[in-house]
Each structure stands twice: as structure tokens, then as C-alpha cells.
């Protein structure tokens, strides 16, 4: 069997780091198992689904390193969903209900007041043709519910009906269908909720494994029942914990600060996002993994914890810095060129250890090329004048800094911070930064002399 997985976002907004978790889990699982990854847009909500969001999701996934094998759109497959709905209606498994949302809520409130679970009582299934015609005459349109197989022939006498599966992340799972309401599959306006289209697509597209968030665990028993009602075997399921902030707050498309696009624009590395999204909430250490190939090797669904996957957005900074500190020049070159940063490999090697993002290189390039706001304390003015006199002749090399400071130490008696800091401040305007032995050849003799008053 070829492993086939899918990621099925709704193109109603930009994806964020929380959405990236199931996308990455599915893609990594496919790669690890030699399988296929389908990007399937749940775009049947024509009013809210936008082409620009679908395009941004594709862009964001590819930036993360996820290249779909197939791209599908549910808006192209409505006929298949209608055919499946007719099959269920013919089998007596999909029935019309005419209650309004207000009527349903009042009924649920009464059940709660009586201490009963707010489970739908299948009133729609009891209605006669005449009663349904009367509702139609009032102008009501029905929503359609699927009859759960939680009875022994009489749908009004439910019994405990356990649906079990071995979850890739959570182990053996059980859901009792008797504790659940018959799910609505078609709205009163004739549009489909995601459940039926998703199942029909999974069947038609040969999806073998469904890996998604733990908020779908309770839905799984219902969906297995619908798979079987349509004559199909349900895929293997895996439900991972959800990514939340440290205070337990969930993520949503409305919180744009953690959108993949905004993280990319702020200079965060894709592998920092991937490392955090995949490893947080597992038994593995959250570390900066340098490549998707290395992440495939580390990926293990059985390491996913049953507890929440809380993360701190600040953790991205540390992961990102570690990736930048070890980044080869070849990987940074194009971005440096786009920013107008020169200096080649020597410059990048000199400054990368002080960068949290590749974008930080622009500031250090300004220090190399100038102008620089030199800083000189009053007590250091004589020392700086002496430093100008003692600057070694010729081109600046990696040995120049050592020669220069040794001569200054012998002449002035200064050492340590008192020796090095005034030179750093006057040449770079900073208290901290790249090693000065690497910076001198980059700044060059003329600029060094210009900065020494």
C-alpha cells in the first residue's frame, strides 16, 4: 500500500505556525514512508474562500519546504459530494430536519436543565411526508443529518456503540456513538459541511492515513461510520496535540503576528519554524534542525506527548540564531545580494555569529562601509590619538588587530576592556559585535584612519 496523506486547509485566511504543525506532520510522514502528500483546499464556502489565500498558503508551504505531489480543490468536486449524499439518502441514512437554530438551541437548553446530554432526539426522522410538506409550505428548508449506527434496528432506541481505532499518536481510542448527535452533513442552504466532502475526497483520492489535531478525536467515530456507510474502509488515524502559546491560548488565522508570511518577512528561517512546530510537545529536545531531510530522520509520531504542546514565540529567536550562526555562505548569498550586502564569504563568516537573522547582516555591512557614529569617551581621547599613530603600515590582515593592540598595550599600559573597548567604539560605534581581527580587513586602512580623529 502506498501511503497517501493530505493537508486540507480552508483558504479563508493566512496559515500560521499552528496550522504548519499538521501540514509538516503529514509531509514528514509521507517522506518517511515513501508516500504521497496531497494539498487539498477545502474551498466549498465560496463566500469566505479567496484565491489570494489559496495562493498564499501554497507560497507559505513551499517556503517551509513542503512541495505537494498533488493539489486538489473541493470546489471542483461538488458533483461527487452530491452523488454521495444521494447514495446515503437512498439508503435511508440521510434525513431532512426542519428545526431552526433557535429551536434547536431551546431544545438543548431544556435537556441540560433536566440533566440530560444535549443529544439530538431524531425528531426529523419521525416526521411524516405531510409534516415535511407543511414545513416546506412555510418556506423552511431542511438541513440533512446522517443516522449514526448506534441502534439495533430501531433508531429511537439507541445503545452503546463503540467505535475503536489504534491511533498513530494516542494508541487505542474508543468513541461511543450513542453519546453523540446525528451529524449535520448538509446545511439548509444546500451547502456541505466539511465532513462529507472530506470523506468522499479521502475515498476517491486513496488517502491511507489522516494525521490531524486532537480536536478531531471525537469526530473520528462519526467519520468512520460514514466511511463504512459509503462502502469504504476508513484510513489509519493519528491525532497530535495542538500547538498553543505558553498561557494555553489557541492560535487562529486572525492572529497575524504568528502567520507564516509575517514570520518569513521578519527574517525567521523556515527551519526554525519547522523545528519548533514539529518538535514542541514531543519527547524529543526542541533544537534547530538544519534541513528537512534531517527533520524527516528525527520525525516520530510515537514521540508526540498526550499533554499540550505549549511554545513561546521567543523560542524562535534562539532557534533562528543557531541556524544563522552555522549557515554556510552559499545558503545566505542570494539574500545578502538582494539586500545589497557585499563582502563575500569573508564578511559573512566574520559577522554571522552575531546575527539573529540574516537581515542583521545589513547593519554590519553599514559598519564596514560607513558612515559610522564613532563613540569616544573623554578619558580615551589621548589613547585613540596614540592608536592612530601606532596603526601598523600596509593592508589590514587577520594579524593586524593583534599587532596593533600589542603595540598599544606596550605603549600605554592598558589591557583588557580598557584596551579593546575604545577601539571597538570608535571603529564600529558598538560595545559588542564581531571579532575585531576579522573586521579590520573588511573596514580597510583608509576607513580606519578616517574614523580615528
TrEMBL record:
Gene Ontology biological process terms, A to Z: glutamyl-tRNA aminoacylation
Aminoacyl-tRNA synthetase class I anticodon-binding domain: residues covered: 376-452
Keyword terms of this UniProt record: Aminoacyl-tRNA synthetase, ATP-binding, Cytoplasm, Ligase, Nucleotide-binding, Protein biosynthesis
Pfam families reported in the protein's UniProt record: Anticodon_2, tRNA-synt_1c
Domain of life per record: Bacteria
Cellular localisation: Cytoplasm
EC numbers on record: 6.1.1.17
Motif ('KMSKS' region) on chain: 250-254
Coiled coil regions, renumbered to chain: none
Residues reported to bind ATP: 253
Catalytic activity: tRNA(Glu) + L-glutamate + ATP = L-glutamyl-tRNA(Glu) + AMP + diphosphate
Residue span, Glutamyl/glutaminyl-tRNA synthetase class Ib catalytic domain: 3-317
Function: Catalyzes the attachment of glutamate to tRNA(Glu) in a two-step reaction: glutamate is first activated by ATP to form Glu-AMP and then transferred to the acceptor end of tRNA(Glu).
HAMAP family, per database record: Glu_tRNA_synth_type1
Assembly behavior: Monomer.
Protein name per the record: Glutamate--tRNA ligase
Organism: Roseibium alexandrii (strain DSM 17067 / NCIMB 14079 / DFL-11)
Amino acid at each position: 500500500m502506498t501511503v497517501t496523506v493530505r493537508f486540507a486547509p480552508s483558504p479563508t485566511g493566512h496559515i500560521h505556525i499552528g496550522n504548519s504543525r499538521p501540514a509538516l506532520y503529514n509531509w514528514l510522514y509521507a517522506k518517511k514512508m515513501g508516500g504521497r502528500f496531497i494539498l487539498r483546499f477545502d474551498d466549498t464556502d465560496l463566500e469566505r474562500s479567496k484565491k489570494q489565500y489559496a495562493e498564499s498558503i501554497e507560497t507559505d508551504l513551499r517556503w517551509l519546504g513542503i512541495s505537494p505531489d498533488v493539489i486538489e480543490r473541493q470546489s471542483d468536486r461538488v458533483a461527487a459530494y452530491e452523488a454521495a449524499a444521494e447514495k446515503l439518502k437512498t439508503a435511508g441514512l440521510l434525513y431532512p430536519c426542519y428545526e431552526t437554530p433557535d429551536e434547536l438551541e431551546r431544545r438543548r437548553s431544556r435537556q441540560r436543565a433536566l440533566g440530560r446530554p444535549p443529544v439530538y432526539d431524531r425528531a426529523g426522522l419521525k416526521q411524516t411526508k405531510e409534516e415535511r410538506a407543511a414545513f416546506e409550505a412555510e418556506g423552511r428548508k431542511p438541513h440533512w443529518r446522517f443516522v449514526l449506527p448506534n441502534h439495533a434496528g430501531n433508531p429511537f432506541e439507541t445503545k452503546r456503540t463503540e467505535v475503536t481505532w489504534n491511533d498513530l499518536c494516542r494508541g487505542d481510542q474508543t468513541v461511543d456513538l450513542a453519546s453523540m448527535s446525528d451529524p449535520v452533513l448538509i446545511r439548509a442552504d444546500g451547502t456541505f459541511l466539511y465532513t462529507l466532502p472530506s470523506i468522499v475526497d479521502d475515498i476517491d483520492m486513496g488517502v491511507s492515513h489522516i494525521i490531524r489535531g486532537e480536536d478531531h478525536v471525537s469526530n473520528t467515530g462519526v467519520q468512520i461510520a460514514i466511511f463504512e456507510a459509503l462502502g469504504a474502509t476508513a484510513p489509519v488515524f493519528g491525532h497530535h496535540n495542538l500547538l498553543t502559546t505558553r498561557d494555553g491560548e489557541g492560535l487562529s488565522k486572525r492572529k497575524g503576528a504568528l502567520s507564516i508570511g509575517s514570520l518569513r518577512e521578519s527574517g525567521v528561517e523556515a527551519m526554525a519554524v519547522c523545528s519548533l512546530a514539529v518538535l514542541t510537545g514531543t519527547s524529543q529536545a526542541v533544537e534547530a534542525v538544519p534541513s528537512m531531510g534531517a527533520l524527516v530522520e528525527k520525525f516520530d509520531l510515537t514521540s508526540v506527548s498526550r499533554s499540550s504542546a505549549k511554545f513561546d514565540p521567543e523560542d524562535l529567536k534562539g532557534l533562528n540564531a543557531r541556524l544563522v550562526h552555522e549557515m554556510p555562505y552559499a545558503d545566505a548569498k542570494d539574500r545578502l545580494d538582494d539586500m545589497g550586502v557585499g563582502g563575500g564569504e569573508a564578511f559573512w563568516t566574520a559577522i554571522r555569529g552575531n546575527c539573529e537573522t540574516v537581515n542583521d547582516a545589513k547593519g554590519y555591512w553599514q559598519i564596514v562601509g560607513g558612515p559610522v557614529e564613532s563613540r569616544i569617551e573623554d578619558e580615551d581621547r589621548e589613547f585613540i590619538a596614540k592608536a592612530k599613530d601606532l596603526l601598523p603600515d600596509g593592508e589590514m590582515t587577520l594579524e593586524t588587530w593583534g599587532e596593533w593592540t600589542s603595540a598599544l598595550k606596550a605603549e600605554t599600559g592598558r589591557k583588557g576592556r580598557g584596551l579593546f573597548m575604545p577601539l571597538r567604539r570608535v571603529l564600529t560605534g558598538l560595545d559588542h559585535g564581531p571579532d575585531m581581527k576579522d573586521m579590520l580587513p573588511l573596514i580597510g586602512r583608509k576607513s580606519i584612519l578616517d574614523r580615528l580623529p
